[in-house]
Amino acid sequence: MKFAVATYGGRHIGMLLAHLESLSQTHPGVPVEVYHQDLPGDRCDAIAKTYPKVTWVETKFDFTGDRVQRISSKTLAWEQALRRQRDGETLVLLDVDTLVIRDLAAVLAGDDWDVVFTWKDERFVLNTGVLVCRTGAGSRAFFQAWRERTLAILSDTERYRLANDVRQPYGASDQMALHELLGFQLGRAEYLAKVGAEQVRLKGVPCAVLNETNSSPITEATHVIHYKGGWQPILLDGRRFTAQRSRAACDEMYRLYLGTFRGALGRVQEVTGRTFSPGDFHVTIPSYLDAPHALSRRVLYTGHLLRDYVRSFQELATGASRVAARRLSLCRS
Questions:
Q1: Which of 116, 152, 268, 296 is 20 to 30 A from residue 280's alpha carbon, by CA?
Q2: How many CA within 13 A on the CB side of residue 164?
Q3: pLDDT value at position 287?
């Protein structure tokens, strides 16, 4: 087994750190490849020194001049990752905002699949934050076809609109491409896709097992947690919980994430002999979490909420001012 994760730019450097720590805890000694671009050098060096067995693969995608490459970076990285592997490798492809919390061997047992994907009975039925392949001609052909179809959707205005229409079951261009390649049907777990001369066997595993995207209790079945979307302002920017990500529903996962990150940060400091704060890795840990008593936690949490509401109001006011300025400029032109 081998893991691969892709990350671009500095915003998610702390998420990369927590992700690698989760792999070191659950799969010690298993190879990891990081596909990256435009990472902050000093913190990247500190992470590399802390996890010396990780292989770093720098990509050269044109994110500045090519919108399509920027949005489709995952499909590009994963196609590259498959080309690097020997045949027969079990390659687990993960978004950087995931934590692996249990050994995946039992979930991925068997030889009746070439590609594993994750599904859920929700508005958006597929999530590509976790994919697994057994490398060979079939899986390489499938990932090439997935990349090509994703690029085609991104290049077609109407198809791109459809991929991001909340009334549709996709949620993103790459997920629409996967949905079409599978001919996905809710309740069906096994697929056979013909890609060129290859017959590719695909197996669906519930997101609740291999790619938990919801804020819900962690169970024995939970193997990978995906801190996607609304989690990131909470974890990275210290923003308040929301109706979709409530404090009560998020509490267990939130504490697990910050505990994993703190453990990783402590390891970095021990290995490098340098002092880093969570903010150096773009992660925010609110002060109320470390308050020693219930009353002080409540007081600090109330202050945390008030500051965030003020911040939201300021952002709203700034946005309104910019809109007004643009309208005034148009009127004068």
A1: 296
A2: 10
A3: 93
d(CA 154, CA 146) in angstroms, rounded, equals 12
Distance in angstroms (rounded) separating the CA atoms of residues 20 and 215: 22
Segment 96-125, tens digit of pLDDT: 999 999 999 999 999 999 999 999 999 999
Which residue is it, tokens 């197996």?
A: 203
Q: How far is Cα 73 from Cα 93, in angstroms, rounded to an integer?
A: 13
Q: Which long-range contacts (CB under 8 A, 24 or more apart) does 235-244 make?
A: 235/15, 235/283, 235/284, 236/11, 236/12, 236/14, 236/15, 236/282, 236/283, 236/284, 237/284, 238/284, 238/285, 238/286, 238/304, 238/308, 239/308, 239/311, 240/304, 240/305, 240/308, 240/309
DSSP line for 95-157: ETTEEE-S--TTTT-SSS-SEEEEE-SSSS-EEEEEEEEE-SHHHHHHHHHHHHHHHHHHT-H
Q: How far apart are CA 109 and CA 100, in angstroms?
A: 17
Place of tokens 């962690």: 218
Distance CA 116, CA 211 (A): 11
pLDDT of residue 253: 97
**Secondary structure class of 276 (helix, strand, coil):** coil
Q: CA 283 to CA 270: how far, in whole Å?
A: 19
Start-end of H helices in the chain? 13-26, 41-50, 67-71, 73-84, 137-154, 157-163, 173-182, 207-210, 231-237, 247-272, 294-332
Average pLDDT over residues 250-279: 97
> What is the distance between the alpha carbons of residues 211 and 147, in angstroms, rounded to a whole number?
21
**Spatial distance between the Cα atoms of 135 and 137, rounded to a whole number of angstroms:** 7
Asked if 14 and 261 touch (Cβ cutoff 8 Å), the reply is yes
Q: How remote is the C-alpha of 105 from its chain's centroid?
A: 21
pLDDT at 132 exceeding the cut of 90: yes
Tokens coding 8:
């671009």
pLDDT of residue 156: 93
Q: Rounded to an integer, what distance in angstroms lies between the CA atom of residue 33 and that of residue 30?
A: 10
